[in-house]
Amino acid sequence: MNIVLLSGGSGKRLWPLSNDIRSKQFIKMFKKEDGQYESMVQRVYRQIKAVDPEAKVTIATSKSQVSAIHNQLGEEVGVCVEPCRRDTFPAIALASAYLHDVKGIGEDEAVVVCPVDPYVSIEYFQALASLGHLAEKGGANLSLLGMEPTYPSEKYGYIIPENKEEVSPVKTFREKPDAETAKSYIAEGALWNGGVFAYQLKYLLNKAHQLIDFTDYEDLYKKYETVNKISFDYAVAEKEKSIQVMRFSGDWKDLGTWNTLTEAMVEPVIGQAMLNETCENLHVINELNVPVLCMGLKNVIVSASAEGILVSDKEQSSYIKPFVDQINQQIMFAEKSWGSFQVLDVEEESLTIKVTLNPGHQMNYHSHEHRDEVWSVISGTGRAVVDGKVQKIGPGMVVTMKAGCKHTVIADSELKIIEVQTGKDISVHDKIKFPLEGEGI
Amino acid sequence: MNIVLLSGGSGKRLWPLSNDIRSKQFIKMFKKEDGQYESMVQRVYRQIKAVDPEAKVTIATSKSQVSAIHNQLGEEVGVCVEPCRRDTFPAIALASAYLHDVKGIGEDEAVVVCPVDPYVSIEYFQALASLGHLAEKGGANLSLLGMEPTYPSEKYGYIIPENKEEVSPVKTFREKPDAETAKSYIAEGALWNGGVFAYQLKYLLNKAHQLIDFTDYEDLYKKYETVNKISFDYAVAEKEKSIQVMRFSGDWKDLGTWNTLTEAMVEPVIGQAMLNETCENLHVINELNVPVLCMGLKNVIVSASAEGILVSDKEQSSYIKPFVDQINQQIMFAEKSWGSFQVLDVEEESLTIKVTLNPGHQMNYHSHEHRDEVWSVISGTGRAVVDGKVQKIGPGMVVTMKAGCKHTVIADSELKIIEVQTGKDISVHDKIKFPLEGEGI
Hints:
The structure is a homodimer.
Chain A: E1 2-6, E2 30-31, E3 37-38, H1 40-51, E4 56-62, H2 66-73, E5 78-82, H3 88-101, E6 110-115, H4 122-137, E7 142-147, E8 157-161, E9 167-174, H5 179-187, E10 191-200, H6 201-211, H7 217-222, H8 232-235, E11 243-248, H9 258-263, E12 269-270, E13 273-275, E14 280-286, E15 292-295, E16 298-305, E17 308-313, H10 321-326, E18 333-336, E19 339-347, E20 350-357, E21 365-367, E22 372-379, E23 382-386, E24 389-393, E25 398-401, E26 407-411, E27 415-422, E28 432-434
Parallel strand pairs in A: 1-4, 1-6, 4-5, 7-11, 12-14, 13-15, 14-16
Antiparallel strand pairs in A: 2-3, 6-10, 7-10, 8-9, 8-10, 9-11, 16-17, 18-19, 19-20, 20-27, 21-28, 22-25, 22-27, 23-24, 23-26
Helix pairs in contact in A: 1-4, 3-6
C-alpha cells in the first residue's frame, strides 16, 4: 500500500501543547499497552505498519515539521515537504509527483490519501488497504471512504451515495450542514466525508498537469509558491464523474479540538496532578515537572506546558484560536531531528536553554555574531568541536564559545547540556552555518 | 509605639504562592498607588510607619522567615527569632524578653501585639496606637481590640464586653461558634477576637516568669525547645480579671485563604493572563513568564508559580491544606536576605538554578563535598572568590568549582548567575561554611 498522510496546520487549537513549530500530531498523549505514551503520528504509523508491514508511508507536510517527524518515526518514513502552504490539491499533486519521480512508484499503482490525525482502531487501516485495492482495480477514477454517521454532525461535509451497497457510485456532495439538514442527509443514506480517498497514480498526475503548468516533481517544488490555493474536493472530487464511495462503519474520530481530544484519553490525567473528590469530567495534561492541584472543577480541561497554561470550560475550548493568535510568546520547547531544546530562562541580555542530543546526532557546525555561549554538560558523553579543535566532553565539563567562534557538539550517548547565551540582540536568526572541520572527529 | 507582629505558619493554604520557606505574608500581590506590588508584611509595615514614623516594629517569627523579612523590609526592622514553634504564649514571652533585654524597652512602656496578616486601612493602625495609650494608662492589665462583627462568622472567637462603651471591661470569651450561636452572641453585643492586644511590658514579663522558669531573653532562647506549647488566650487572656476591650468598627479582614485573599485584590489578574468574555468572578495570579489562558470559568482561582499550579473553585479552595501536605516538591523559588534563587531544571545528577544577588550582598563562603558547580554570569558585576583567589566577574564570564573547593561571590551591582550543579547525591545539606579569605576582597 502507498499511503500519503496529510500533516498540516500549526495546531493552535491545542495550545499550549501545540504551537507554530510543534503541531498536535506530535504530542505524546496516547497511552500504549506498555504504559508508554505515543503521539498521533506515531500511533497512526504503528497502526499502518501493523496492517501492512510493507506499506510505503509518505507524509506531506511543511518544512517546520520535518525534524519532529524524523525524531518520532525515524529516518525511513518518506517526507514530501511543501515549500509553503497551498491547500490540499497542490499538496496532493506535489506528493503524487514525489511518489512517481522520487520514489519510482508506477503509474498504475494505487495511492491512498488520508489526514494524519484520525483517532481510530486497526480496522480503519484495513479499510484503507481495501480502498487501495478498489482503486487499483480501476472501477472508478476516484474511490472515497465514507464514514457511517453516528449523529447529525455539523462539523463534516457529507457524501450522498447512489445506493446502500458497500461500494456505490457517488450521487453528490454536500457542504457542512446545520443539525436539521444533517438529519435529512442521514435519512437519505449520506456518509461523512473524512477526506480519505484513493486513486491510481496516473489519474492524479494527469489532473495535476491539467491544472498546473509543471514538468516534474522538482519543477513543481520550485514553482510551488506561484500555484493557486485550491482544495482537492473543489478542484477534483466534486467535478469527477467516475467516482465511488466505500462505506466504513468502524470507530472514527478526528482530534482537532481539546473537546474531542480529551474524549480519546484513556485516563483523566497525564503528568503530575491531584484532583479532589468534587471534580467531575476534568482532564489534566501537565508537561511541567511541578504539580497541578485541581479542586471543585467540572467539565474543565487544564493543560500546562513550557509555552503556557490553558484552563478552559470544555465547550468554550473550541473558541481558543483567536486568543492563541494574540500570544506572541517565545518558543519554549521544540523537538528537532537531533533531539530537543527547552528554554529555561529569559533575561534581556541572556537566554538559558537545555539541549538534549540523541545518541549519534549532532548540531550543525555554526557560529553567532552577537552572543557568547557556555555549555555545561549535565549528562552523557560526546565530542565538542570549537574552531576545528575536538575535545571529549562529559558531566561537569564546560565549553566556552565567544561570539564568532565556530562550534558544534556530537553526542556519543544521549547528551544533555545547559547552554547559557549572553549578549545583546539574542535571536535565532543570528546563526551562520559551516561545513564541519576538525582533526579526528 | 512598640509593636510586635506575629508572623507564623508555613502558609500552605495559599499554595503554590506560599510553601514551607515562603509564607503568604511575603507574596507581592497588593497593588500600590504607584502601580508596584507589595506584600502583606510590606503593606502592614508601611501603614504602621505612616501612622507613627517612630514606631518600633519587632517581628516575632521562625528562622526560616528572617531572610525574607530583611529582604523585604530592610535591616532596620527588629526580628525576634523563635528557635522552634511553641504557640503564641511562649512567642509573646520571648518577644517581650527581647524588647526588654535586647532593645532596652522600659518596663512601664506599652507593647501592642497583632498578627502580621490583616488586610486593613490606616485607621486600624490608628486604633492600635490608641490601644497602646490605653495600656500605658494602666486602667487594666490587658487591653484587647474587639472588631465589630459584620456577619455571624464561624471563623473567629468572640469577646463579650460588659457594656457598649468604646472601652468596656471584658465579661467573658467565647470559642468559635456555629452561625446560629454567633447570631446570639452578636445580639448580646459580642465582638470578634482578632488576636490584637496591648499590655505594659512588666505585666507580660511577670506572667512569663510565673509560667516559665527562665532568667532573661538569652536563657529563654536557649531553653525555648523545652517550653510547653500553650496559646496566649488560654494561658493569659481567659484567666485575667483586669481586662478591657476597645471597640474597632473599621474594615478588618484576615487573609488566610484564597477566598479572602482574592476578595482583597484590586484587579482580577496579576501577571500574564488572558480571560475570555465568558469568565465570571475569576482571579488569576501568575508568577510564571508564560501566559495563562482562561475560558468559560466561573468562581475560580488560578494561581501559578515555580512550585506548581492551583486551579480551584473558590469555595473548594479552603480545603487545600491536606492536598498541599502531600506534595513533596523540591523548593523551586526562595527569597533570601542576599537575594533570591530559582530552580530552572532538575535531572537525576544535576540541578540548574538562577541566583540573583542584591547589590553589596554575598553568599556564605562555602564548599560542597559531592558536587561540581559552574557559574555563568548573565548580568551585573561582582567578585568571585575561589579557594582564596579573587576575580572580577561580569556578563558572559564563567567560574568553575570542583567538589571540595571553597567559593563565594560578592555582588557589586545586582548580579545574576546561572549555576549548574553536577554530581551524585545533590542536596542542600551538602554545604560546609568557612570564614571568608582572599587577598584584596
